[in-house]
## 1
Amino acid sequence: MIRKCLFPVAGYGTRFLPATKAMPKEMLPVVNKPLVQYGVEEALSAGLDQIGFVTGRGKRTIIDHFDVSYELEHQIAGSDKEQYLTSIRDVIQRATFSTTRQPEMRGLGHAILVGEVLIGFEPFGVVLADDLCLVEEGTDSVLTQLVNIYRRFGKSVVAVQEVPEDKVHKFGVIQGEELEEGLYTVSDMVEKPKKEEAPSNLAIIGRYVLTPDIFEALRHTEPGKNGEVQITDALCQLAKRGRVLAYKFKGKRFDCGSVDGYVEATNYVFENLYSNGQ
Ligand code: G1P
């Protein structure tokens, strides 16, 4: 059973400066809800209610967001504005939140290894909150889809989508053998390859279910692309032992770490999902 979900949220959000100078990128709102809340709601939808944040400097507002604000509650209690707090109250009631700090920015793999103290030796989810994943109402969230695969096979699972050749350099890319429709046994993984070196056009997006042997692999992972410890490189070690699956998820993914993706997400949510202030 998977109960824990790790949110690496220590990154600087440089692609969104100056907005992210004094504000975490994970707190950017898509319409009226911060990105990180979408992520936590997705974790809850998959049954993961123990949330762990790997934070860094300047990220306090994330923690405050998932705590009760007594002044605010007192101020608007009984007024019609209370409806705006419904979704966050619900999240706070259903989940627990723990944090640990990543003192140095040494890459996503390093952030996940720092999070080991919050996870222990059990399988867990990872959500990169700036990848906003949305599915049609009434269908499984992307993390739920991965958890369901994990339940069947007991292996680490990464979410992938097909991207155009000229975009592969922005992602971790997998090589795999199709096991059943949309599900691959991964044999190789490369972080942000040049298009001529990419093993496929199946790109990893920011949703993972990881088995705890990933921590040992991370301890033995040297800095890779951009001098950072890459989760892709650590997973590749497990993949060589047949321990990693990739799933072509059903749903939409918006790169909210970039202005284009963020605007696209905002328009989509406003037109399709926003109603009654929730
Ligand atoms: C990270 C991962 C990469 C993955 C991407 C998804 O890269 O390292 O493998 O494809 O997230 O968004 P980042 O975008 O943080 O540079």
## 2
Amino acid sequence: MALIVHKYGGTSMGSTDRIRNVAKRVAKWVRAGHQMVVVPSAMSGETNRLLGLAKELAPGQVTPEVMREMDMIAATGEQVSVGLLAIALQAEGVASVSYTGWQVPVRTDSSYTKARIESIDDARVREDLAAGKVVVIAGFQGIDEEQNITTLGRGGSDTSAVAIAAAMKADECLIYTDVDGVYTTDPRIVPEARRMNRISFEEMLEMASLGSKILQIRSVEFAGKYRVPLRVLSSFTPWDIDIHEEAASGTLITFEEDENMEQAIVSGIAFSRDEAKVTLLGVPDKPGIAFQILGPVAEANIDVDVIIQNVSNDGKTDFSFTVHRNDYARAMELLQQKVGPATNAGQVLGDPKICKVSIVGIGMRSHVGVASKMFRALSEEGINIQMISTSEIKTSVVIDEKYMELAVRALHKAFDLDQAAISA
Ligand code: ADP
Ligand code: ASP
Ligand code: MG
């Protein structure tokens, strides 16, 4: 008997028929003798619908008071899901009970809309498991010290599931979704993308942090910190397939490199549309200028990603950086009203229509010329690179958003990741 956590995403929970299927699948795992905790997301489209309603009443408002209510509203999506799934399980003859994040409780900090999990009290869940019940826990949500409802950021149910698995020392956490594993890039953009049987934890961490929506970055961080065995697999296989076959399907996130690991130099391409670029033209080039610009940005709780400072001309320089697109309006306001005047900048420019495309691979550590191959592939498509950022196992470029798909396809091909290239 093992303790297993299943997570089902929005599409997998998208209708009562699909919820029934989830229940049948979970019931199969129960019959095989396992203790089960199940973490579902809101039904597909529901979180967008709920946040859309809130935004209708508070267009452009991002005060802490509004953010608090956004979480209050968004959390209801998962509350509906857990209730429905618990009923569906009971209809399958499986004892089950559902909990919201605050009933568990999943304790978080107070950063509304992107809260971080601080601790999970699993006593109540353990009692239910011991009593033979399947415990269904709402993903994406928690509660802060002042008993306010919080949510964990988009895609946060992945993190709920892995954090619960970590807290309970589960034997495995299975992330069921609408694709059958982690691919070399999003298969919806590149149909030739290839599923990986295994991906190293480090590569998965980079892919997720560079925008791959398949797993929320914090779920991968949790898996790494607590060594949670993690697998991504499809919820669209027939629910009654052999349980051993199911348990070995999809993509395993591995913590050790073994000789069976695929030895590609570049193992995946990630991309993110959630980016925007801001530029201060003609700031005085003197010590402390980066701090004068980025200090107030950090104080405003705006995360900065890629940064470029140009060589100085007549004692002045241009300074650009990228931020999450959700923070673009606030960043521009801050630069125009405060940072620009304070640093005697010539002009503030903004471009929300950019994206970031990245190549990721552990093999890049030991190979030279990988970045230049990337730049050549992009230049052959006539794509202009606006910014570059590198680390040991990734190279990212910031480009015009309209070339994103072209860039991803070109790089996927250039690094021999297309299915045809592998089987040839
Ligand atoms: P869920 O609702 O199950 O959490 P998501 O939409 O959040 O599902 O994540 C699954 C989606 O991630 C897939 O449908 C796919 O389009 C996208 N995706 C992005 N990058 C990858 C990748 N490298 N491999 C597989 N899927 C990816
Ligand atoms: N329902 C939330 C979202 O749409 C959380 C999740 O699906 O993981 O972002
Ligand atoms: Mg998701």
## 3
Amino acid sequence: MSQPARGELLYEGKAKQVYATDDPSLVWIHYKDDATAFNGLKKASIAGKGEVNCRISTKLLELTAAGGVPTALVRALGPRDQLCLKVDIIPVEVVVRNRLAGSLARRLGQEEGLVLPRPVVEHFYKSDALNDPQINEDVAMAMGWARSWELAAMREYALTVNALLLEFWGGLNIDLVDFKLEFGRAGHTVLLADEITPDGSRLWERGTGRHLDKDVFRRDLGDLSLVYQELVTKVFADTPAA
Ligand code: UDP
């Protein structure tokens, strides 16, 4: 496969840069080491974070594609670069939860940790200016952010991804507490877009409950760089060195 030519910077987000390529239907995604929390109020550069997120996201997006969920990933271009289909991001973030944590625990005034008897799907409006407020499917439809069939597909895909990831992380003795997904439109289809990373997931070591995710940075629980190196070693333990 020929290497696409990287073109102009189209967009720079908190953790990634998106570049044009010589094919208008494809974009080049570059993962940065920058970490932010609390909607950008807390910032740092975490050595190696971009590479860990990119390698893990590539692996998990390939796993979900093999499990029947269409994704925007075309292929990895290197340890911190991916070639992806250009999509219009749907401004509705989908969070799937298996245990009570984070904003849901706070909203309900409960301790983190309760195992939910069935997964909970929540929706948030993707807006930095508004701090990603929680919405529901009716609001998303009424505001014209997503159509009914798109929301139905997003929910079904999110639950399929959850089942696949529970098995994957469970095999590494890691509990998948929750995670956030973003979807995009390409033509008339809805695709899983963006990333599946420890930045956008809660991963607790089974037995100890130790955080192996971005909460280490958000909550000052230790050195995120070291925790991410430990995680990437576990994820690629069975992969022969290139
Ligand atoms: N999440 C994310 N980006 C956001 C908000 C949440 O990736 O802008 C992820 C977060 O890492 C966690 C899950 O979505 O795995 C649920 O987050 P929650 O709603 O509990 O919010 P938080 O307490 O993380 O702000």
## 4
Amino acid sequence: CRKDCIMTAGVGRSACEHWRLLLSCAASTGNGEQGKPFPLTESDRVDQAYRENGFNIYVSDRISLNRSLPDIRHENCKQRLYAEKLPNTSIIIPFHNEGWSSLLRTVHSVLNRSPPQLIAEVILVDDFSDKEHLKVALEEYMKRMPKVRILRTKKREGLIRTRLLGAAAAKGEVITFLDSHCEANVNWLPPLLDRISQNRKTIVCPMIDVIDHDNFGYDTQAGDAMRGAFDWEMYYKRIPIPAELQKNDPSEPFESPVMAGGLFAVDRKWFWELGGYDTGLEIWGGEQYEISFKVWMCGGRMEDIPCSRVGHIYRKYVPYKVPGGINTLRHSAFRFFFTSVSPKEFFFFFFFSHTAKPVL
Ligand code: UDP
Ligand code: MN
């Protein structure tokens, strides 16, 4: 299979359906190829397979690190044009005790499906993992990938401070955060960078597809015409976009009041102008509200980009220890409000996220 680049040109803009490495290979028919579910046997379903990651690592280990994925973008995405000169990005991937094959597949998918000139570097940030495979073996493996750097925290920091360590070291014009168990789909990157190049205060999120934690089948989330919101308990949810705000063309970027939090790209300097993340946030939880509200309050915007798709393995359960217990996560979600948001702002955002038109 070769990397192909089908150019459609416009004035200063082009659509390069590039680097469709393996995707265009109809011949890829092995386990999990084309994002198909792996045929599980009873012995694959044992608890041991899930214990360390909350997803079935036995299955992951038997699927190619370069597996092909189905191109499930809206048809119109194939006609969209992007600026010929786009900013480059550092890809930041924090991990804590991630499985070998799931971490490597994340890196492979990014390098396989991105135009090389747009990837400044890939920064893997180890949040104090204790698994042997993430030490020398990982460093040895990554020697063959000159764009990949490995940083390590000195103690368990949690997702937020781990991301900040990566962001502080990043050199790219844009920083793109991914989880350590993702698969970037065809032409995922230019649609994100294009929006940032048009307005540097735009934070962009890809559509997050679901990689099944049992069989690794790749599928879209239920209901695509949804946007981010949260309920009175601060749980993030996606609710339908009101009919009057829906675009005629489903491949158009649309505004979102709050982001899901895990996967997004942001202009590096703008991220720091926003103050990065609150460093008092523990493990994970709440950081997506903090960054979302700061974006709105500082005159920025947030968008979901339908033509950019990235798969994520949603775990069956949280496999790692959370220092201070799982309550820390709920505490984290509220911390932001006690420290930075007035009640008036809170109500504004709550109603905005549920009903109002984005008029900022
Ligand atoms: N992570 C981390 N430190 C932690 C917990 C999580 O670096 O203490 C990483 C983890 O490896 C993943 C990301 O943060 O890349 C998000 O965590 P997770 O995937 O567990 O959250 P979920 O997607 O299940 O909500
Ligand atoms: Mn995750």
